[in-house]
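User: structure tokens for this one?
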Amino acid sequence: MANDSMQEKTEPATEKKRRDAREQGDVARSAEVPSVLVLLAGVIIIKVSGRFMYDNMVGVLRDCLTFDQIPDFTDAQTVSLFYRYALNFVLTFSPVMAAVFLVALASNIYMVGFQISWKAIGFKFAKLDPIQGFAKKMSLSSVVELIKSVAKLGLTGLLAWIAVSGEMEHIRSLHDSSIAMILVYLMKVTYKIFIWVILPMAAVAIADYFYQRWQFEEKLKMTKQEVKDEHKQTEGDPKVKSRIRTLQFEAAKKRMMAEVPKADVIVTNPTHIAVAISYKPMEMKAPRVVAKGAGVIAQRIREIAAEAQVPIVENKELARNLYKTVDIGKEIPGDFYRAVAEILAYVFRMKGKRI
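Assistant:
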């Protein structure tokens, strides 16, 4: 048999392998999709809450730059001003920060579901191995990510430059504008840059999402031998299961044979089939089959019955019917009451009992 490492991985990943990979934190995830959605959410929030942000920034600038004389700040006043401006800054950009956080969380949950993988965030000494770290950095996946990051950075910079280059004349004339006009203009330019950048980045994100899913599926693929080995681990080794069934059968046969000496009569075919019947009028509603067998087992039932002096009665048709239709430990059906009752009556008369 060829070594597993030499076999080609052609089989789709099983559900067990997918669960194990998920527990390890290994999922199909594109970092570009949340980035684009976060950027889009930022653009929308800036557009919707632009007036609110503008009013707050104008208020801060006026408060900072408008004064009648040079102030003499104490330590307490400095801390108070810093606290006030920091709080104003948080309030100003809170809509954008909240939207970015919620969109980033929702997009990641949508792609991979919600699951905390403690194994993925746990400390591993193997992460400190410089050789393994270098090999990981030089892997195909890392090279692809590097190329993608450089291309994305170059594309973003180019698009931002194109968006800004057309505004150079306006930028040069900003020194004659009021603070309010400068802020309005900066927000418009920022919005324009976002629009220029987000459209091509969306196309990149869609392509990366499908690439990541394809790469993930390829990485999870298994060899035929791995599928067989996993099936053995999950369902059990067929040899072991066969051995267990054999032991269970032997144990059941021993219990069955132990009931033969307690039977009232053995109905035979006469040599191929043997059915042991017991009837306790005070305990049972109807006669019950306590043991049955064919071939070697039937022969053993007859031998045990002979040693225990249990009567053996030949009735080919009844023996065949009981063997086929009645399980061990079950009462006989009403269709066979008459035939069984006649045999039991005969046996009990021999023993001096009553039915």
